[in-house]
Amino acid sequence: MNWYLKVVKEHYADFKGRARRKEYWMFVLFQMIFAIVAMILDSVLGLSFSPEIPYGWIYVLFGLATFIPGLAVAVRRLHDIGKSGWWYLIAIIPLIGTIWLLVLLCTDSENGENKWGPNPKGEGNDLVIDQIGRE
């Protein structure tokens, strides 16, 4: 839950920097849980758009409120593996693009610093370790 709140509160529209796999996938997990809860609330409260469609205004408002942080954490995740955020658009290609994006989002971080910042895992940051050893 802390990972989800971190993305929504601290990095709402932050497209710069890097995001670990754990940060991204914990966000996705809680996003799915909250989306299901929103659909259930829509159904129970009678806010569904029609009996055949399980979602309504709560789900739509939730989706609109979390669209930007979801996109931002995905872009930062791509930065973490050394790819531009524009790679997210590969999902436009039916089936193959979505599978390829999933593979990219599951790929481990680049070691050390890349052009989007230091490794959020702290691995490969030998300068920090060397500095600690000198103090």
From TrEMBL:
The keyword Transmembrane is annotated on this UniProt entry: yes
InterPro entries to which the protein is assigned, alphabetical: DUF805
Keywords: Membrane, Transmembrane, Transmembrane helix
Transmembrane segments annotated in the record for this chain: 24-49, 55-74, 86-105
Keyword Ion transport: no
GO CC list: plasma membrane
Protein name as catalogued: DUF805 domain-containing protein
